[in-house]
């Protein structure tokens, strides 16, 4: 039992374990953590859960685009520090915030079933009924994501794109209360979790805007040595989401991408075949490389020994190892294909131009 886990004895002499869950302070982060807590409470009714909220670098620096801050663990570092100091037992993240290489001693012990990974358009009320296609020339679209901006600049050249920072509440307030933006682009999953689906005027499919690695999925990060906590949270794994996200994270890690480069993906599992489409873009979207590959993730009737093997940071005992290996290889192979066609030159230029902005 870690220091963060406290045993309480109730009046009947029963020892109830308290497990401390770390989270960011934003409303969305709390909603996501409460969702994971409810799942755990249903599975382990005797466990007492305590939520510990804290601010991260990404929450504190609100006047700079994420891609300019140059820190890969913007929304995770303080949470991981608390995990390392045994102040919490597990941390709930949006998977897309977690770097593809985790600090030593940590692992992703659960990847929950993914919400929609797509991006959504939220219009200023005065533009109700319009789409990105029908917005007037020169309309300003708010997004701090290089990935979104690169794809949408190419697809909708009549629009302008400007940075917008802050949590979901802040960004919606900036949109509604000022005339600076005609629309903003947000993750559909976050809007749904906040109960704001009515604000979504358009969901962007992969033909318009492919999504970020891990987008729409929640991850539970734990200390790799805490076998009991790892075993507990592993029941939350969703096999298909695990395989899709392993492929996506392997693709991004091979490309050495992060917030500061435009990398996008699209994945699907159908009839035990995992397909991955991946792309890299120049900042203006004019230069891009996009390819697709697929692999079988059918484990047949193989019985496998449970293994503490991480695949791009994920430990999933209840997902067949052979399928995880195939998913990781798919991501690496697709990245290698793009690299052989000049992806590194596009990404290096994008990184330099972004640093110079």
UniProtKB/TrEMBL annotation:
List UniProt keywords, sorted A-Z. Answer: Acetylation, Cytoplasm, Phosphoprotein, Porphyrin biosynthesis, Transferase
GO MF annotation: an example: hydroxymethylbilane synthase activity
Domain spans labelled Porphobilinogen deaminase N-terminal: 19-229
Look up the record and name the cofactor or cofactors this protein needs: dipyrromethane
Compartment(s) where it occurs, according to its Swiss-Prot or TrEMBL record:
Cytoplasm, Cytosol
Which PROSITE patterns does this chain map to? PORPHOBILINOGEN_DEAM (PS00533)
GO CC field? cytosol
What is the reaction catalyzed?
4 porphobilinogen + H2O = hydroxymethylbilane + 4 NH4(+)
Question: InterPro entries this protein is in?
Answer: HemC, Porphobilin_deaminase_cofac_BS, Porphobilin_deaminase_N, Porphobilinogen_deaminase_C, Porphobilinogen_deaminase_C_sf
Subunit-level organization: Monomer.
Q: Which HAMAP family match?
A: Porphobil_deam (MF_00260)
User: Family, per the entry?
Assistant: Belongs to the HMBS family.
Q: What NCBIfam families does its record include?
A: hemC
Protein name, entry field: Porphobilinogen deaminase
Q: Which organism is it from?
A: Hucho hucho (huchen)
Recall the taxonomic lineage recorded for the source organism.
Answer: Eukaryota, Metazoa, Chordata, Craniata, Vertebrata
């Amino acid at each position: 039992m870690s220091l963060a886990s406290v045993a309480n004895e109730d009046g009947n002499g029963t020892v109830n374990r308290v497990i401390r869950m770390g989270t960011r302070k934003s409303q969305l982060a709390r909603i996501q953590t409460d969702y994971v807590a409810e799942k755990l409470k249903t599975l382990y009714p005797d466990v007492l859960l305590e939520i510990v909220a804290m601010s991260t670098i990404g929450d504190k620096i609100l006047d700079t685009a994420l891609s300019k801050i140059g820190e890969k663990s913007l929304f995770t570092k303080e949470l991981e520090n608390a995990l390392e100091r045994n102040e919490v037992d597990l941390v709930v993240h949006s998977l897309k915030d977690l770097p593809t290489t985790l600090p030593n001693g940590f692992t992703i012990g659960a990847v929950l079933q993914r919400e929609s990974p797509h991006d959504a358009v939220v219009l200023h009320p005065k533009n109700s009924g319009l789409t990105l296609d029908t917005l007037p020339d020169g309309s300003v679209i708010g997004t701090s994501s290089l990935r979104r901006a690169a794809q949408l600049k190419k697809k909708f050249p009549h629009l302008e794109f400007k940075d917008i920072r802050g949590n979901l509440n802040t960004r919606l307030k900036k949109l509604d209360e000022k005339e600076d933006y005609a629309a903003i682009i947000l993750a559909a999953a976050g809007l749904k979790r906040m109960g704001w689906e009515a604000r979504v005027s358009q969901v962007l499919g992969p033909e318009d805007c492919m999504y970020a690695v891990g987008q729409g999925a929640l991850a539970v990060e734990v200390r790799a040595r805490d076998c009991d906590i790892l075993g507990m949270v592993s029941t939350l794994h969703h096999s298909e989401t695990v395989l899709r996200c392993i492929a996506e994270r392997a693709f991004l890690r091979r490309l050495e991408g992060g917030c500061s480069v435009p990398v996008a993906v699209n994945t699907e599992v159908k009839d035990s075949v995992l397909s991955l489409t991946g792309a890299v873009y120049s900042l203006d979207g004019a230069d891009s490389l996009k390819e697709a590959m697929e692999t079988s993730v059918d484990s047949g009737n193989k019985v496998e020994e449970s293994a503490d093997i991480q695949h791009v940071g994920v430990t999933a005992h209840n997902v067949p190892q052979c399928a995880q290996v195939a998913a990781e290889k798919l991501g690496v192979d697709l990245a290698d294909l793009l690299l052989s066609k000049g992806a590194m030159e596009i990404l290096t230029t994008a990184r330099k131009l972004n640093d110079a902005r």
